[in-house]
Specification:
heterodimer, A: alpha/beta, Rossmann fold, four-stranded mixed beta sheet, globular, B: alpha/beta, six-stranded parallel beta sheet, 24 helices
Chain lengths: ~200, ~475
């Protein structure tokens, strides 16, 4: 009943609109921030913009291991497919790593390592596709989230990233760690999601 | 005593501490917005106009796009519910929950749900609702209402929040450090997330082409809420459509920058249906409630441009009236200029009661300048003032203008009145028993009344003017030459 009523109300509300606006149309270039993209490589621009929102780009497992040691966060989750390049190296380095995420123990994981499918250079965003994330909570509940990514997967702009959204039912762009400024406008990171967002580039 | 309008009364009664929070918070947001847009773009105004154009096009073809969105959502496996009124929307949500025996849920921030007082309705019906956005969580603890579209607790300071946490049993001791407050909420809410059976969200955009529901949050609360829940219900106003996924780029680039000065809000989530076999987790059912609740009345009015709004709050932050009065003065979920236009028509049966809102503006135009979809807010405020006048809605504080109108529209009466008023020069006005007049005259001397003299002078000047004017217009060029 509501359905028909809404459609008929819309039609009568629009009955007196004489010239209906056309879609103005636009070129991608008109809405892309060329200043944010700069003249460097997609990796360079991604790093700059991601770090501007307090994300951290890492180029090797050693760098990750020393951060975990420094913070004393030595227990976490790793996507089983990423054990070979990453999880095993962390285990050798003294971490304990689980490959299944137990939701009952969501607070036990100090870091979570999952796959990102792309990144956006213009905005410094990671693209996490549910279909390729081994567990959504593993990318969200640990204090440190490590998104693993190949350099070639970095796209340049927001319009480029929208073009390749694909059929996945759930895709999320993460532009830095979880944050709030609800209390007196003071920026606090790590509200519900990670307090540290890392992009680990492989290959 | 001057009879004030309700919004004025709020502005006068607000305590200093609260006013400082509102003023400081909104001014900071305005600065961040400005630097984000102008550092990133050479001509941000061109993008604002483009965004306004796309929204206008969508609204002018809303029947077509709504039909397309409906088809796309169904194709994606969503259940689509239409809700014409607030009651319909509340009932739709409640019956989805009841049919599935759900009694516990989390909710991420949604202005549409504030409009229909959804939380109260669900709670009265035995459902435990937990707001998961930090600001909304504190609002819920306090039994308060949000005073800002993006920052619901902009009117509270850390001391009030620390006391609320103690009172609400979130913390044993008083601690007003913002980081501690946030950590405490993190721990408390996590326990609740994993127990929740359903999650209610709003929706920032729906792409008609793909049926993707787009949600933006900074905290990650909607995503956390969605990970363990079986059922996801998105409550979305019918004006939130955009034609295609590609159009989303325009709005996403503007929304974060206009709201909080971020190039993108931290989490931008694209949801197109319930979990499928490719996903390891996610809700098994997705319901989209498309809500009208007065939007078609706005669409049929001469203020339909207000439906372009993407709820960024930039107009609220920049508005000098909002900064003084705070959001609660607008007596609806929407404060600031957008609320002054939207609320009186969206909640049409409350028009007489809210008709003071469009008048609470100096028409300075700052709201239009910052609007990411270029809504001509000052024009719309004027149209609503006109509506109130045509509908003869009396306002406290209105001056009786009828005698002046008679005077000013009849030249003969005007002339006589001007001359007659010279009698005032001989009256002991300081003796008049009008307190404000006496106060004023205590400091100043009233100049002598010269009613009618100007007209006489002008008439005489017209007759003898010509030679004098030629002479005066020459004098500046002479002095230029000599200097």
């Amino acid at each position: 009943m509501s359905r028909e009523s809404i459609y008929s109300k819309i039609r009568s509300a629009l009955a007196d609109v004489e010239s209906k606006a056309e879609h103005p149309g636009f070129e991608d270039a008109a809405i892309v921030s060329s200043r944010r993209l700069g003249t460097d490589s997609p990796k360079g621009a991604f790093t700059r913009n991601f770090e501007a929102v307090h994300g951290r780009v890492m180029n090797g497992i050693d760098e990750l291991l020393s951060l975990l040691k420094e913070q004393g966060r030595m227990h976490g989750y790793c996507d089983p497919d990423l054990m070979d390049p990453i999880g095993n190296a962390l285990t050798t380095g003294g971490c304990t790593v689980e490959t299944t995420y137990d939701r009952e123990r969501y607070d036990d994981y100090e870091f979570g390592i999952t796959r990102a499918t792309a990144a956006i250079a213009e905005t410094g965003s990671l693209v996490l596709d549910d279909a390729r994330t081994s567990d959504r909570l593993a990318a969200l509940s640990p204090w440190i989230h490590v998104a693993v990514l190949r350099e070639a997967e970095i796209v340049r702009t927001v319009p480029d990233a929208l073009k390749q959204l694909g059929p996945s039912r759930n895709i999320i762009w993460a532009t830095g760690p979880s944050k709030t400024a609800d209390v007196e406008g003071i920026l606090i990171e790590g509200v519900h999601g990670p307090g540290e967002q890392i992009a680990l580039l492989i290959g | 005593m001057v009879n004030r309008q309700p919004i004025d009364v709020y502005a006068h009664q607000i305590d200093d501490e609260k006013q400082a929070s509102v003023l400081g918070g909104s001014a900071a947001s305005t600065d961040k917005r400005y630097s984000a847009l102008f550092n990133d773009y050479e001509d941000p105004d061109a993008i604002r106009r483009l965004a306004g154009g796309i929204k206008d096009h969508t609204l002018h073809h809303l029947d077509r796009y709504l039909e397309q969105a409906e088809e796309s959502l169904v194709r994606n496996g969503c259940h689509v519910h239409f809700a014409d009124t607030a009651d319909d929307a509340r009932d739709a949500v409640l019956s989805i929950l009841r049919d599935r025996g759900i009694t516990r849920l989390t909710k991420s921030k949604s202005m549409a749900s504030e409009e229909i007082h959804l939380n109260d309705h669900l709670t009265e019906n035995g459902i435990e609702v937990l707001e998961s956005d930090l600001g909304e969580f504190i609002i819920q603890l306090d039994g308060d209402t949000p005073s800002h579209i993006v920052r619901p607790i902009i009117h509270k300071n850390r001391r009030e929040i620390a006391r609320s946490f103690q009172r609400g049993g979130i913390a044993d001791d008083y601690n007003d450090d913002p980081e501690t407050i946030t950590r405490r909420a993190r721990v408390h809410l996590r326990e609740k997330y994993v127990q929740a059976e359903a999650v209610i969200t709003g929706g920032n955009f729906i792409s008609a082409e793909s049926g993707r529901v787009v949600l933006v949050t900074n905290e990650g609360n909607s995503r956390f809420g969605m990970a363990p829940s079986r059922v996801h219900i998105a409550l979305v106003g019918i004006e939130k459509l955009v034609p295609t996924d590609r159009d989303l780029a325009v709005f996403l680039n503007l929304l974060g920058r206009s709201a909080t000065g971020q190039q993108l809000t931290v989490y931008t989530e694209f949801i197109s249906g319930p979990r499928d076999d490719s996903q390891p987790s996610g809700p098994e059912e997705m319901h989209v409630v498309l809500m009208n609740n007065g939007r078609t009345d706005v669409l049929g009015s001469n203020c339909r441009e207000i439906l372009r709004c993407i709820r960024c709050s930039a107009c609220q932050n920049v508005c000098p009236v909002y900064r003084q009065a705070s959001g609660h003065a607008y007596r609806s979920p929407y404060g600031g200029p957008v609320g002054a236009v939207l609320s009186p028509i969206l909640f049409g049966d409350r028009f007489p009661e809210l008709a003071d809102l469009p008048k609470a503006s100096s028409l300075c135009g700052a709201c239009n300048e910052v609007c990411p979809v270029d809504i001509p807010l000052p024009d719309l405020l004027l149209r609503l003032r006109d509506k109130a006048k045509k509908e003869h809605i009396p306002q406290p504080g209105d001056l009786p203008m009828a005698p002046f109108a008679t005077l000013a529209t009849s030249p003969a009466i005007w002339r006589t009145a001007m001359t007659m008023s010279k009698a005032m020069n001989h009256l002991p006005i300081q003796m008049a028993p009008v307190r404000p007049l006496q106060d004023w005259l205590g400091q100043r001397t009233l100049p002598e009344w010269h009613g009618g003299d100007f007209r006489k002078w002008l008439k005489k000047r017209k007759e003898t003017d010509q030679p004098q004017r030629t002479q005066t217009s020459q004098s500046p060029s002479k002095s230029d030459a000599s200097s």
